[in-house]
Amino acid sequence: MRGPDGMRMRLPQLRPDELQARLDVARGTRDRVYSLLEAVLSVGSRELELHVHHTLDGPDKARGYRAW
């Protein structure tokens, strides 16, 4: 954020309502990044689980083995 003279404003120069608005934006960004990270990890762990399952079960299924 730039002040009237075009210089960057420091946090102590912000009014409380401006500071609160910046904090709200930062929290929202943090929450979106966290949600995105959770989604990426969820997809990645599911793909890993499928790969391991396929790798471990593939040879047995090829021989006709069935787990009860």
Average the pLDDT over all residues and give the rounded result: 77
CA distance, first residue to last residue? 65 Å
- Residue stretches low in confidence (pLDDT < 50, at least 5 long) are none
Total helical elements:
1
Strand-pairing-aware structural class? mainly alpha
The proportion of strand residues reads: under 5%
Give a verbal description of the structure.
The protein is mostly helical and 68 residues long. The N and C termini lie far apart (65 Å). The model has no long low-confidence stretch (mean pLDDT 77).
Describe the structure concisely for a colleague:
This protein has one helix and no strands.
Give the secondary structure arrangement, pairings included.
Elements: H1 16-62
Structural key phrases:
68 residues, mainly alpha, rod-shaped
